[in-house]
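Second attempt. The first submission of Flavodoxin domain-containing protein had a stray character pasted in from the spreadsheet, which I only caught after the job came back as garbage. Lesson logged: always re-copy from the clean sequence file. Corrected sequence (195 aa) follows.
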Amino acid sequence: MGMFQPVWLQELIGEPAGSRPAAPAEPVTGMRFVPDPVLIAYASQTGVAEDLAAATHEQLRGAGVASQVVDFEALDRAMLESASQVLFLVSTTYDGDRPDMAETFSHMVMVQSASLAQLHYGLLALGDRGYEDFCGFGRTLDAWLQANGAQAWFPRIEVDDEDACALEHWHAQVAALAAPVTAWRADALSTERIA
Ligand SMILES: Cc1cc2nc3c(=O)[nH]c(=O)nc-3n(C[C@H](O)[C@H](O)[C@H](O)COP(=O)(O)O)c2cc1C
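This time the job returned cleanly.
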């Protein structure tokens, strides 16, 4: 085979190991929302995750991204299997347990498998390092999502006692996901003006 293979052929036949320098690992997809509405799902015991879900909803509204807030009481497998992008905000209570509003979801949905290969998500896990099982429910939920094929946009963000840095990191990640949407809309608008 000559040196100048078309790219599609190189991809088809592959290349011997070590024939080109290792490329940096790339995420499965870009860090961006697609133009579907974003589902914001929260599980909260004392209201912190609920308030953060509302703040995230406002943030997306400001960025021109449609979103819908739902609590874990209303969340079911069918909703997740038909969603393309979800932001989860969940706390841990009792001894590393889920909030009460996530009880049915835990017992009915998380004990089974689901088809979540189409799902991209971000997860904010609220907890307190003073408890033995830090962010227990957030970690269990994350493991279940991944085991069922869902793809995280970024590693789970864990929040110790409402730590401001971790919360800033969450909002920055949401802004990064929304930025291309905002840029795309601005671009479409300017194209319309020119036309
Ligand atoms: C009774 C009680 C039990 C808790 N148990 C845990 C726990 O096991 N692990 C943990 O990481 N955080 C635990 N926390 C901390 C909460 O997860 C944290 O305060 C969180 O911000 C609460 O969010 P929420 O208001 O949305 O429920 C507990 C808090 C309370 C009041």
